[in-house]
Amino acid sequence: MHSRNWIVCWIFFWFVPVTGTRAIDSGMCCVQDSISLEIFIDTPLCAGQLATLTMLATGGIEPFQYSTDGGLNFSQNVVFNLLAGTYILVVKDAADCVKDTILTIHQPDPLHLLIGQDTFTAGAGEVINLLALGSGGSPPLIFSWSPVQGLSCSDCPNPTVIAGMVNSYTVVLSDKNGCSRSLSVAIDITTDTRIFIPTAFSPDQNGLNDLFQVYGSGNGVFEVDQLQVWDRWGGLIWMANHFNLNDPATGWDGTFRGQKLDPGVFIFTVQIRFLDGSLKTYKGEFTLIR
To answer: Which has the closest alpha carbon to 126: 252, 31, 219?
Structure first.
């Protein structure tokens, strides 16, 4: 009877968690620290912006795959856009050898912008005090208000403004890195545009109703753009431009070329410019009484 010699080999596998690098040698055994990982990061200048992260691996066996979530998901992309936070970065080669590291991306100090009041209700021509408060970011902080029309200053935190010229203003807060925040202020105008034009006047030099003038209580009026007086045949008798409402020194005195005119009916046209920039024309008749 023939006898056989049996050789029994026991092969043992140890699964050891590896933090760092695993690579393989020619005998398919792991060798520590053969993958090198370089990390380049373009940090954000402003809060809320994405950081650009680049990972480049050398050593090991190509192709490499990269992960920013601890190895849950891999990609051959080497560039990642990430928000502020802590990430477990992993690189894996073709032999499943890995290297990992922890990276924290810090967020810049955010800009904070507050305004004292976001809505005002005022009569046209009233003075309003605006207020903006800024903090955070990278000093120096710069305020910029727009539009500049009606503002006492456009680069200060607390300008004053004349109500009625603009319906809203926007303030932008910027820091040295170009980060910015903006808020708006609305101005609601309670406009009084009442105009009174008399139907008769008596230029008798008694100090009462001696001039044909334009009156009004409207605080929304910017100026009388033009006042014209015509005779009933269409001839221009008198004209004045750009004067204030209720101006006691501006009005027609009932003369033409230095001569007193006889009593009669005359025609007027008047153009009123309001604080919001609009222009309105009024027409009618009035009587000269002597």
So the answer is: 219
Q: What is the pLDDT of residues 163-214, one digit of tens each?
A: 877 889 999 999 999 999 999 999 987 766 788 999 999 998 888 889 999 9
* Residue whose token pair is 């760092």: 20
Strand partners, 142: 174
* Beta-carbon contacts of residue 66 (< 8 Å; ≥ 6 apart): 55, 57, 74, 75, 76, 77, 78, 80, 89, 90, 91, 92
Beta bridge partners of 268: 229, 284
Distance, CA of 113 to CA of 137 (rounded, Å):
10
Q: How are beta strands 279-288 and 200-201 bridged, if at all? A: parallel
Q: What is the pTM of this model?
A: 0.56
Q: What angle do CA 236, 237, 240 make, to 5 degrees?
A: 90
Using an 8 Å Cβ cutoff, are 41 and 54 in contact?
Answer: yes
Residue 64: Cβ-neighbour burial (10 angstroms; 0-12, 13-18, 19+)? buried
CA angle 112, 114, 115 (to 5 degrees): 160
- List domains and CATH numbers for the chain: 22-105 (2.60.40.10), 111-190 (2.60.40.10), 195-288 (2.60.40)
* Spatial separation of the C-alpha atoms in residues 21 and 89, rounded to whole Å: 13
Structural tokens at position 68? 């920013």
CA distance linking residue 231 with residue 261, whole number of Å: 10
* pLDDT digit string, tens, across residues 215-247: 987 667 889 999 999 999 999 999 999 999 899
* CA angle at 95 for the pair 29 and 100, rounded to the nearest 5°: 95
Q: What are phi and psi of 149, to 5 degrees?
A: -60, 125
CA distances from 267 to 199, 212, 232, 240 (A): 10, 11, 7, 15
SS3 256: strand
